[in-house]
Design goal:
By secondary structure, the chain is mainly alpha-helical. The protein has one domain. It is built from 5 helices and 2 strands; from the N terminus they run ααααββα. The longest helix has 36 residues, at 36-71. It is elongated, with a radius of gyration of 20 Å.
């Protein structure tokens, strides 16, 4: 069960992050486009990516993340997970910013610049990079490597072993 949940968690990640990065890049091109037909096509593409891939991917990722944590609640003690969850909240905020700014831009209520779009693109990439580091390396973890194997650190047991 955990393996399949993890597979769907990663699929949600690919849909969510991939779509957000694509939308910010398309928005950057959209800001410089002058043709009304092309602008309409780009608006349609941005909306389809956000509604059809990014937001379902985000929902899938959050749901499977909750399931993964419920399978092993001890992971809630891990500092790397706290960092990851903070970065996920930041990613949700960035997603909402992209969505609301794109919608307002498409409705011609605001102007966006290429620079703003690329700044959002860069911020999303940095947050994603941080999440990858925390998940794959698990710095600040309660695990220590012992003879090539990972085992949880139990401070009380460590004291008894030293005696």
């Amino acid at each position: 069960m955990v393996a399949w949940t993890l597979v769907f968690h990663v699929i949600g990640l690919v849909f969510w992050l991939g779509s957000l990065l694509a939308v910010t890049h398309i928005l950057a091109s959209h800001t410089e486009e002058t043709s009304p037909e092309v602008r309409a096509s780009l608006s349609h593409l941005e909306s389809k990516l956000l509604k059809g891939l990014a937001h379902p991917g985000a929902a899938l990722m959050v749901i499977t993340g909750i399931l993964l944590i419920s399978e092993d609640t001890h992971v809630l003690r891990e500092a790397w997970l706290h960092g990851k969850l903070l970065l996920v909240v930041i990613l949700i905020i960035l997603d909402l910013r992209v969505t609301f700014r794109a919608r307002a831009f498409q409705e011609e209520k605001i102007e966006m610049t290429r620079r703003e779009c690329m700044a959002l693109h860069g911020a999303i990439s940095l947050v994603f990079f941080g999440i990858l580091i925390l998940v794959l390396i698990k710095p600040f973890g309660l695990h220590r490597r012992v003879a090539g194997l990972e085992r949880p650190v139990n401070p009380v047991a460590e004291l008894h072993l030293r005696r």
